[in-house]
Write a structure and sequence with these properties.
Distance between the termini: 47 Å
Strand content: 15-25%
Radius of gyration: 22 Å
Number of strands: 6
Strand order of the largest sheet: 1-2-4-3
Oligomer: single chain
Structural class: alpha+beta
Helix content: 40-55%
Largest sheet: 4 strands, antiparallel
Shape: elongated
Number of helices: 5
Length: 165
Amino acid sequence: MKLTIDILEDTISQVMREVTGGTDCRAIVKPAADPKFGDYQANGVMALAKKMKTKPRELAARVVDKLDVSDICEKIEIAGPGFINLTLKTKYLSEMLSNIFADEQNLGIEKAAKPLNIVVDFSGPNIAKQMHVGHLRSTIIGDCICRMLEFLGHNVIRQNHIGDW
């Protein structure tokens, strides 16, 4: 299942290319810093406007006019000098959560297309010093990282070393 942020980035980038005649451009979509601005914010228009020597807000308006994400977003607004704020539809979010819930095994997360061999080196207590609970922290974090990578389909090699000896 492709992530919403990837879908929005791909779609907005394509519209930016259409509006500018194929100029190299990429929409940078990130979660909005403040919920009052929506769910996501696209920031790539300002850099592109500078490159094209045009007003960012006007370029953003041209992009928004051609942008069709009506199946995902209920509201698209231009803010400030040329940010594009996007508010997701409740129905879209509900469908995404239903899809995740229906896929009990993988939670809608796709396995890596090309699994990698990844070495995770964690722990490393110094046997010349007294053990304490802090030594468990890196072991637990390392194991969590390994489990996430394995869930994604990668081959994980767990490496645990003894430090300073």
